[in-house]
Amino acid sequence: MMRENTGLGWDATKNTIIADDDWWEQKIKMDHRYRRIRNKNLSLICYRYDALFSDIIAMGERARAANQEQISKIEVDLNKE
User: Fold this and answer.
1) What PANTHER family does the record tag this protein with (predicted)?
2) Which of 11, 61, 63, 60 lies closest to 39 in space, CA to CA?
């Protein structure tokens, strides 16, 4: 759910998804079951997913860590019309 969207966060203290009210309202309109997880502690789910996916990593020239600067190889000539 979170990986398909931007502008979301994770509250590591409460183990909840951080999103604005508009995002939640849109999701709940799509599927009423989202209401159940809006302020719910999701630590058990995260624990299970961590066990499943913790050994999966991105490799190669396009792999990036969250703390790395994004590098782009696209060059743009700003003087060109």
Assistant:
1) L10-INTERACTING MYB DOMAIN-CONTAINING PROTEIN-LIKE, MYB/SANT-LIKE DNA-BINDING DOMAIN PROTEIN-RELATED
2) 11
